[in-house]
UniProtKB/TrEMBL annotation:
The keyword Secreted does not apply. It comes from the Bacteria. This is ABC transporter, ATP-binding protein. It comes from Lentilactobacillus rapi DSM 19907 = JCM 15042. Residues 9-240 form the ABC transporter domain. Keywords: Amino-acid transport, ATP-binding, Cell membrane, Membrane, Nucleotide-binding, Translocase, Transport. One of its GO terms (molecular function) is ATP binding.
Length: 240
């Protein structure tokens, strides 16, 4: 099947500046970034390079100071608030520290994003159970997050991020708190979801090994700019 050639994510001349202590900090500095549907696109760089700030513009959790954000052909800054809320549901996010609700069961955590939808309890439960099966945690639905390992918690977070059938998953250092074996398992899961759900994944990391093991393309960020980009094999050819 031919894939669409229009990028699913198109950041055009995006900048984000912060004012701190009377100084202007250029966290993201005139970045252009196009990501195609079905890609696993890595963004790598040192701490403070601007990776998180950049990817937070993809769903406008971070409003760019200048530039335009187009996702799935829609210019997000032009959307009404209700339309933006709908568009955001199609962009899942996972984080280093999982961000689970500790007072709720695993099943309730996965159901949570569906509570605001017009979907009845039975269907909601069924969907959450199916997602838990998909991430390999079917038998843990009644557990609480604190009873799980880090890798299992991240699987719950992944299941939750899929509740609204997103087109895009943004992974912000999702494996940084995990040991190498668990990291590998989570990356395999992400690759599986990419392939089976045609999920476009934007993956932030500071670890080259993570990029090499799952990403097709990579952008290297430094001081708010993308200083290098391309297929992983090309960008890292000298370091492989
Ligand atoms: N809300 C904010 N207010 C002020 N400065 C900020 C804000 N958010 C980020 N910054 C600054 O912007 C710069 C880029 O931060 P960002 O978190 O995007 O980098 P990063 O590459 O993701 O690094 P890390 O991996 O450490 O999160 C840093 O200097 C940071 O201190």
């Amino acid at each position: 099947m031919l894939k669409a050639t229009n990028p699913i994510i198109d950041l055009h001349d995006v900048s984000v500046t912060f004012q701190s202590n009377g100084k202007t900090l250029h966290a993201v500095n005139h970045v252009n970034l196009q990501i195609n549907q079905g890609d696993i696109y890595g963004i790598i760089g040192y701490s403070g390079a601007g990776k998180s700030t950049l990817v937070r513009t993809i769903n406008l959790l971070q409003q760019p100071t200048t530039g335009t954000v187009t996702v799935s052909g829609r210019h997000l800054q032009q959307l009404s608030n209700p339309d933006l809320r709908t568009a955001r549901k199609k962009i899942g996010m996972i984080f280093q520290h999982f961000n689970l609700l500790n007072s709720r069961t695993v099943l309730n955590n996965v159901e949570y994003p569906l509570l605001s939808q017009s979907i009845n309890k039975h269907d909601r439960r069924a969907k959450a159970k199916k997602l838990l099966e998909l991430v390999g945690l079917g038998e843990f639905e009644a557990s609480y997050p604190e009873q799980l390992s880090g890798g299992q918690k991240q699987r719950v977070a992944i299941a939750r991020s899929l509740a609204n059938d997103p087109d895009i998953l943004v992974s912000d250092e999702a494996t940084s708190a995990l040991d190498p074996k668990t990291t590998n398992d989570i990356l395999k899961l992400l690759k599986h979801l990419n392939e089976t759900l045609d999920l476009t994944i934007v993956l932030i990391t500071h670890e080259m090994q993570v990029i090499k093991s799952v990403c097709q393309h990579v952008a290297v960020m430094d001081q708010g700019k993308i200083i290098e980009r391309g297929p992983v094999a090309d960008v890292f050819s000298e370091t492989v």
